[in-house]
């Protein structure tokens, strides 16, 4: 039997050496080591061998299997090396490498990061809050009555649970005042959602940057100076800024802020970028009721708040004619900011 094993091993090694590709090599492996291969069939005969000869037979069988397996691996490596060499044979190493295009930050990310940097230099800290809000934090605490148009289903995205997608990041102001005591100086960038008709200056999902400053002796000149400084840092010292009286339920007095938009080939026009005002004492009283203390006593503290659209800041910064360009993912547009 040992002579038979030696014969099978010799034939297998010749078959492996003659293999010219991976398919023929695999055929050789199956012919020898497969379930019906020559070595496998020979190994099945061990049950018929006298007990005193089984050890020697098993040793010969294992030795043959080890030699054949090693030959298969060696041949596999040799064939792979030949295939690799063939694949590289047509490559001209003197040719310049292909350029790898680099990505860039989205213009909204660029404008948000710069806005945060300017306000952080002025002492504002970052704050955050949930985008799925309840009516108390989005409306009630902000002195917004139940019949206010913003609370209508035609203007706001409601869930069946009664919660809603926040219509502004002002809800972060409420959550911050609930958990902190003056002085409070925070900014809250994030997404807001409204059922606006999508056009050149409106989206149903937009990006806001909210700000709040609460302390003793915070005045309207503080608000005006802060926002004028911010907008001129953002757009240049010659930027024209105007404050228009307005109404917001949660601030009194209230203003809208416009910046003059300069687009090449078009007449300059004013575009609204922010709303602001002095925090209404009713907001402080509502939060005190929730806190069950008088940390925000309207007789002792005052504050101002503002909210601005980052999308519109980007439009002014780069002269973008249509806000929809910021969400269309057109590489030809976005690569300008690389």
Characteristic key phrases:
42% helix; two-stranded antiparallel ribbon; 7-stranded mixed beta sheet; elongated; BirA Bifunctional Protein, domain 2; 11 helices; alpha+beta; 338 residues; 2 domains
What does this structure look like?
- The protein is an alpha+beta fold.
- It has two domains: 2-88; 107-337, BirA Bifunctional Protein, domain 2 (2-Layer Sandwich), CATH 3.30.930.
- It is built from eleven helices and nine strands.
- A hairpin with a 7-residue loop joins strand 7 and strand 8 (269-279).
- The mean pLDDT is 88.
The percentage helix is 40-55%
Mean pLDDT over the full residue set: 88
How many beta strands in the DSSP annotation?
9
Alpha plus pi helix count:
11
Strand order of the largest sheet: 1-4-5-9-8-7-6
What is the element string, with H for helices and E for strands?
Answer: HHHHHEEHEHEEHEEEHEHH
Shape: elongated
Kindly give the count of domains. 2
Strand content: 15-25%
* CATH architecture heading of the largest domain: 2-Layer Sandwich
The rounded Rg comes to 38 Å
Assigned CATH class of the largest domain: Alpha Beta
Low-pLDDT ranges: none
CATH topology of the largest domain: BirA Bifunctional Protein, domain 2
Q: What is the CA–CA distance across the termini?
A: 76 Å
Query: What is the makeup of the main sheet?
Result: 7 strands, mixed
Structural class by secondary-structure content? alpha+beta
CATH superfamily of the largest domain: Bira Bifunctional Protein, Domain 2
């Amino acid at each position: 039997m040992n002579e038979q094993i030696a014969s099978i091993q010799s034939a297998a090694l010749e078959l492996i050496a003659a293999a010219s590709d991976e398919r023929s090599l695999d055929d050789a492996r199956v012919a020898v080591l497969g379930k019906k291969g020559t070595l496998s069939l020979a190994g099945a005969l061990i049950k018929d061998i006298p007990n005193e000869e089984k050890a020697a037979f098993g040793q010969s069988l294992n030795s043959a299997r080890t030699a054949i397996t090693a030959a298969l691996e060696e041949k596999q490596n040799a064939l792979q090396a030949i295939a690799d060499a063939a694949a590289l044979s047509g490559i001209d190493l003197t040719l310049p490498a292909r350029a790898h295009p680099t990505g860039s930050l989205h213009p909204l990310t660029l404008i948000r990061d710069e806005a945060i940097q300017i306000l952080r230099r002025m002492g504002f800290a970052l704050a955050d809050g949930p985008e799925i809000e309840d009516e108390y934090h989005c409306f009630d605490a902000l002195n917004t009555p139940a019949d206010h148009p913003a609370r209508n289903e035609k203007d706001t995205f409601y869930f069946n649970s009664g919660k809603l997608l926040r219509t502004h990041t002002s809800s972060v102001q409420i959550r911050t005042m609930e958990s902190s005591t003056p002085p409070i100086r925070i900014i809250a960038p994030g997404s807001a959602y409204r059922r606006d008709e999508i056009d050149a200056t409106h989206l149903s999902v937009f990006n806001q940057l909210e700000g709040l400053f609460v302390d003793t002796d915070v005045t309207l000149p503080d608000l005006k100076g802060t926002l004028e400084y911010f907008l001129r840092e953002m757009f240049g010292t010659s930027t024209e800024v105007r404050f228009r009286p307005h109404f917001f339920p949660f601030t009194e007095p209230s203003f809208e802020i416009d910046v003059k938009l300069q687009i090449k080939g078009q007449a300059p026009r004013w575009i609204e970028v922010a709303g602001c005002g002095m925090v209404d004492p009713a907001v402080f009283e509502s939060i005190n009721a929730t806190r069950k203390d008088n940390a925000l006593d309207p007789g002792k503290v005052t504050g101002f708040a503002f909210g601005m659209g980052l999308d519109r800041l980007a439009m002014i910064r780069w002269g973008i004619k249509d806000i929809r360009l910021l969400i269309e993912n057109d590489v030809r547009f976005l690569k300008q900011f690389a």
